Amino acid sequence: DTEEGLALIWETILGIGEVGRNGNFFDLGGDSLSVVQMAAEVAEKFNVSLSLEEVYKTPFLDSCAALIDAAESSYRKPIRPASSRRIHPASSLQRRMFILSKQNPGSVAYNIPMSFAFSQPIDEEKMHNALDRLVKRHSILRTSLKLHNGATVQNVQKNAVLDFQSLNCAEARLDATLKSLIRPFDIEQCPLLHSALVKTPKRHVLLLDFHHSICDQATMRILLDDLAMLYSGSEPPSPSLDYKDCAVWLDDYLLSETMRKQGDYWREKLSGELPLLDLFTEKKRTGAMRGGVCKGRIDEKTVSTARAFAKQEGGTFFTAMMAAFSLLLSKQSGQEELIIGTPVSGRTHAQMQSVVGAFINTLPIVCKPDAQQSVRDYFISTGETLTRALDHQDYPFDRIVADCRGRREADRNPLFDVMLVLGKDDLDLRLTDGSAKASAIDTSTAKLDISLYLYEHEGGLECFLEYDKDLFSATAARHILDRFMHTVQTMFVQPDMLLKDICVMPDDEYELVTQRFSATDEPYAERPLHEWIEDLALSRPDDIAVVSGGKRITFSELNIRANRIAHSLMGRGACAGTVVALMMQRGIDLMPALFGIMKTGAAYLPVDPAYPEERVAFMLDDSCVKILLHDGDPRGFDGTALSLGDCLAFDAHENPCIEHSMDDLAYIIYTSGSTGLPKGSMLKKRGVAN
Length: 690
Hints:
The chain is built from 22 helices and 23 strands. The chain has 690 residues and is an alpha+beta fold. The strands form seven sheets. The protein has a six-stranded mixed β-sheet with strand order 5-6-7-2-13-12. A four-stranded mixed β-sheet has the order 8-15-14-11. A four-stranded parallel β-sheet has the order 19-18-20-21. A hairpin with a 2-residue loop joins strand 14 (450-457) and strand 15 (460-468). The termini are far apart.
């Protein structure tokens, strides 16, 4: 009976008792990871492919059983042990890890270090022996990667010497000692595992540091269970399959009709120009991967509210978090389309569930928050996007990237610069001497601009924002995390509110921006605007000043360009009392041109190059313009016309020494002229300073 077989699968995966016909998979504890495992087990037992999109729509036992009965048979080849040899094909993830390790040989960005602190002493000899036996029983722990005939391959050794250290340290030095043990791997040397036992007067701490090419979250759970048994003197059941067996199967699977269809889905989904997330950053992009972490916690009441909302709408808690995170990023960037990466287990074949190795895949999720949508409607559309992506999750990320090649800036990450990860705080090591929960160790690296890690546990949701320190300050990162937590807190209690009306700023920040920043009774220095830029060029020379079309210039670069333009204009007579017309397209050099004119003491007159000839001629004549600065066609101007390129080539970097009066004219701007001739409005420098 289909219902009985499916109920047994649910009970095993969710770790619960008997499931009734009306049981809801997600109400019983299922999530976006376990539903994939369930689909894999269904494929193994019933030889059908279960659509996750349909499961999300009708997640009840009897409904899912009906889906299985109605589905066409979709036989998947079983995974067989590969021939016994040293060289085996690398998986897609391993190929990506090999390239990244060669590009950044000294980086620990793809280390996965975990520590386990025991209040009771650990038997060092038993632990060392257990780890040795762990390496012997799992071939992936004796595997390195290398190039063979131009291809990345797994190099499996019969034996490997475990890197195990034992050392003592003061309790106060524990964190620093653990961090000092994190070091880069040579991906061509196995084992890709470092281990240590650090002893303080109060506790013993086991450090396990894996390279991501051989380990993921599911693998860590398997290895910890095996290690506990080996430490106790027991022998875990021998694994029937190794990672290399799965890699051979995956290579064959890539050629299947199923994978062709999945590739078609992603090529269509990511066709055209890809959105480039344009968050404000305080510094230049360097690619150095220097990272920082800030932490926060969302209370249980807020989590329960979001979870209840998701359940009511027939979705998942992860969908709620993706909706909140994408809304925040949309509000901060001003963009209505963006891509967020998220990892999936990659274990869609039932036989992979108990195999040690890195199966994880990454999916680019295209989010389109529409300001006119309600929270409820956006949640539903986000859920639909996620379920379709999960239905096509086998297609390797490196293939998705290759299919989209050439449609991103060279100094940006492929496809996306931010990631959202939702996991469970359930990794622990249970030894005969006691048990300890896993604690992550900060490696001070950042794989992306921003990665938001959320871990469910009793009492709420732990939040970790990993950020690129070369782009964001600690304060800026803190603001992003605080805004996310505030968005989660407020978004799901008002599901009918439009997205445009959702405020992502916490109350104290909102008050600061709307009240204190807008107070007009503060004294201000009466100085020409360009002098502020000169000060910033000295105090913050490398901070970003202007962003336009993907290009950026610092305050130092802005000031230097403005100085060149100013000296060139002064050589042609620009000074206080004169007007310089500025006819340029919007671009990175528009601000240097404006400040360059200000530095001469002259006023500027903005002229849109798209204006009709008659309007341009009237404005230039009416304002008595003698000098025109342009970046294209001077439109027959009979005064002094200077091209921007020539001005920027002028050899003068220093600030002009000019006396400025705050009563001098700063600029002239003309009305549209829709009711007659355009009229010029004049503003003095004192008004601009205010």
